[in-house]
Amino acid sequence: MVKPAKQDMAPMRLTELFCERLQHKRTPEEHLACPYCSGGEREVASGRRELFCEFVRGRDATHFGFPDDGERHLHG
Q: Residue 18 and residue 16: Cα distance in Å, rounded?
């Protein structure tokens, strides 16, 4: 049995994944900087949102009563 080259065994690195809060793709580094991210690099790299993202639509803990159509809310 032939083993694959070491580089072939390296985990695939995600370049972008969907952000539920902003509704578009973000880099893993941008996810880590998000106030709702409670995971580390490994959790974000897994792409499994339930492991790192605490954002729940309709229950925005950092909203503080600002209007939904205001610039703060629209741009995170």
A: 7
pLDDT digits (tens, 9 = 90+) for 10-69: 455 778 999 999 999 999 999 999 999 999 999 999 999 999 999 988 776 555 666 667
Q: With bands split at pLDDT 50, 70 and 90, how would you rate the model's confidence at 9?
A: very low
Sign of CA dihedral 67, 73, 74, 75: positive
Separation of alpha carbons 76 and 71, rounded Å: 8
Tell me if residue 9 falls in helix, strand or coil: helix
Spatial distance between the Cα atoms of 53 and 21, rounded to a whole number of angstroms: 9
Phi/psi region, residue 65 (left: phi>0; alpha: psi -120 to 50; beta: rest), is left
DSSP assignment letter at 3:
P
75 phi, psi to nearest 5 deg = -110, 10
